[in-house]
Design goal:
The structure holds two protein chains of two kinds. Chain A has helices spanning about 1-35, 40-45, 45-50, 55-60, 70-80, 95-130, 135-150, 150-165, 185-215, 220-230, 235-270, 275-285, 290-315, 325-335. By secondary structure, chain A is mainly alpha-helical. Chain A is globular. Chain A starts with a helix and ends in a 10-residue tail after the last helix. Chain B has helices at about 30-35, 40-55, 60, 95-130, 130-145, 150-160, 165-175, 180-190, 195-200, 205-245, 255-260, 260-270, 270-295. The chains are: A mainly alpha, B mainly alpha.
């Protein structure tokens, strides 16, 4: 019975995921085809102007740019089902070939950043909740408000200015030193600054959010009871409050994927880190719509799937967490420090 | 004084300091803080007003023509003639920072105006519509919300390709309405069945009338905080786009486009080109946030039980 229920929930979520991705692909497809710029120019460059009418027509047909838009979408969709997502206009390669090498870089940077952010956020939240209203708590909250106002790209610039330009400690761009792709040390060294920006620019916002949730938690009556029974503050906090916070935290984590991924993209662009954030920026610059479309869809899949995973996990932990809509509304009201998408 | 029963009881802490007994003395400031009584953020408002006035009336006091490129004074560190130094194009940073602020603030306000307009209309329709339409509309906005806002903006910018102030504002506006629309919809759903809305409809008030007279005043307070935060994220989006070189070009001065010179500045170690526009940007955002927080309601009891 129980596992049936779970299977049904998961099946329902997967159907919603598929529908969402379909709609997303339609929106992005329609938008990229409505673009005023000529994608042929980005593929062939200036040669387009010297093409004969037949060559021009051939090129349009080859890139799948002929026929009415619904027909184009149907063709694109049929090819996509077979794993053919079109050719990057800029790289002249199938988009998946270009993306596959870079996706892992982004997942490494974003994933590590994500985990570290929430690890530190929880620690800070617990620290603040222990000493609510103390000087330290107030300083941390104030610092949080200030750092939440620092745009990611500018934080990255300042760190580069300090650590790369002034002190020559860390490299400022790329994922590894020239010709040292396999060198783990070099890779780690190149990861420090981008990772620091990803974590620092999101840490305070989520720490503050978790702190507020934890403060709500310690106002519950069971805390008073446990204290009256003689449990120490520390064990009440870690064994009861933090445990009760977990479903909320997982939901917050699920919703935050969007912001942290967005932040990772910006950080990648500033550090020229070879991930899909940098790629999306390049494709925008060169009007490489095929590529941009897939990147938007991949991002959408990561975010939507992450959200659903979060929902399932927190529902497994706590059955009362039925509607995440309520939680999202709560978080929106709580959004004192964002973006992020934001941004 | 001494009762015969006194030996049955132990008197604790008769001469002890209350603090060592674990009784917290609560100061008045502490109570106010805990009650979260919001005082109007005077300092933030004053600084923001100063920045806005400075940007509006910059031509009165900067003196220098913001577009003049002094080729003999490229990349000059701050000194007496150029108190904030000059950038890699030889422009005086002190003057262009105010001219740039003018556009940055305008983009923040205009983009928010657009996004709020869309959000109010979309949210109201969704809230008033039947269940099927409502859920389709909300799903649609959720799908758009699942894309990081900057990626969405980059995508739309790549497609539309506007590189002027109005164009950028519109692009930021049409990509940033979703979360406010969700809030409007929740509020509209909450009040749409109240008696006063019903009476208004019975007396012949059309949709527009009901929206303006009854719905809007009710959700205005709720969305205020988000709207102010949208101003902030619009300014950030513009500066990020321009910094990356796909927003406004360098000759349309904004804080973002000033920062787009930072690549060259990093090579020469000219910290002032990076730090000064950035500090202006961060201070402005901080003031806007403080103002936004003032509009946010919150409730919480005085003490934790821990």
């Amino acid at each position: 019975m129980n596992s049936n229920h779970l299977a049904a929930t998961i099946a329902k979520k997967i159907i919603i995921l598929i529908i969402s991705v379909l709609v997303l692909s339609m929106i992005t497809f329609a938008m990229s085809r409505l673009a005023p710029g000529d994608p042929l120019v980005s593929y062939y460059g200036d040669r387009v102007e010297r093409m004969s009418p037949e060559e021009h027509a051939n090129a349009i047909e080859r890139l799948g740019l002929d026929g009415p838009m619904t027909q184009q979408y149907a063709d694109w969709f049929k090819a996509a089902l077979q794993g053919d997502y079109g050719i990057s206009f800029k790289y002249k390669q199938p988009v998946m070939t270009v993306i596959s090498g870079r996706l892992i870089n982004t997942l490494l940077l974003g994933g590590t950043g994500f985990i570290l952010t929430f690890l530190f956020a929880l620690l800070i939240a617990v620290l603040c909740a222990f000493r609510e209203g103390s000087l330290m708590d107030r300083i941390i909250c104030k610092v949080g408000t200030i750092t939440s106002c620092i745009p990611e790209f500018w934080l990255a610039l300042v760190l580069i200015l300090l650590f790369s330009v002034t002190w020559h400690l860390l490299p400022s761009s790329g994922a590894y030193a020239l010709g040292e792709a396999g060198n783990l040390g070099s890779r780690l060294e190149h990861l420090i600054l981008p990772l620091a920006v990803v974590v620092l620019s999101h840490l305070w916002y989520y720490a503050y959010m978790l702190r507020n949730k934890l403060l709500e938690e310690i106002r519950q009556e069971y805390v008073l009871l446990s204290r009256a029974k003689g449990l120490s503050r520390r064990s009440v906090m870690w064994k009861h409050c933090v445990r009760n916070l977990m479903p909320t935290m997982i939901s917050i984590m699920a919703i935050s994927i969007n912001h942290i991924l967005g932040g990772t993209y910006i950080v990648e662009m500033v550090f020229s880190y070879p991930g899909i954030g940098t790629l999306s920026f390049e494709s925008a610059k060169y009007h490489d719509y095929n590529m941009l479309m897939i990147l938007v869809i991949i991002t959408g899949i990561i975010v939507i799937a992450g959200n659903m995973l979060g929902e399932i996990v927190s529902e497994r932990i706590d059955r009362r967490m039925g509607s995440t809509e309520r939680l999202e509304d709560l978080i929106e009201r709580d959004k004192s420090e964002e973006v992020k998408h934001h941004a | 004084m001494l009762n015969p029963q006194d030996h049955l009881f132990e008197i604790i802490g008769a001469n002890q300091n209350p603090e060592t007994m674990g009784v917290k003395e609560v100061s008045q400031a502490g109570i106010l803080r805990n009650l979260r009584i919001k005082r109007f953020p005077v300092a933030a408002a004053a600084v923001l007003l100063l920045i806005i006035l400075g940007c509006v009336f910059c031509s009165l006091f900067t003196g220098e023509d913001p577009f003049r490129m002094e080729l003999t004074h490229i990349n000059a560190a701050p000194d007496r003639t150029h108190i904030f130094g000059t950038d890699t194009l030889g422009r005086d940073i002190w003057s262009i920072i105010w001219y740039g602020g003018r556009r940055s603030l305008f983009i923040g306000a205009f983009a928010t105006l657009i996004s709020t307009g869309i959000a109010v209309i979309y949210g109201s329709i969704s809230g008033l519509a039947g269940r099927a339409v409502d859920s389709v509309m909300m799903r649609f906005s959720e799908i758009l919300l699942s894309i990081p806002s900057l990626l969405l903006i980059i995508f739309v910018q790549a497609v539309i390709g506007q590189r002027n102030v109005i164009g950028i504002s519109i692009i930021i506006g049409i990509t940033g309405w979703m979360s406010v629309a969700k809030m409007v919809r929740t509020e509209v759903k909450r009040i749409r069945d109240s008696e006063y809305v019903l009476i208004s409809k019975m007396m012949g008030g059309n949709l527009l009338h009901v929206m303006r007279k009854h719905l809007a005043p009710n959700f205005a307070g709720t969305i205020m905080f988000m709207v102010v935060m949208n101003i902030r994220s619009a300014i950030v989006s513009e500066s990020t786009l321009s910094f990356l070189g796909i927003g406004l070009p360098v000759d349309i001065i904004t804080w973002g486009s000033m920062l787009s010179l930072s690549d060259k500045a990093l090579l020469t170690g000219s910290w002032w080109i990076i730090l000064i526009p950035g500090v202006f940007l961060v201070v402005t955002l901080l003031c806007v946030t403080e103002l936004g927080n003032y509009f946010r309601g919150s409730k919480s009891s005085l003490h934790g039980n821990l």
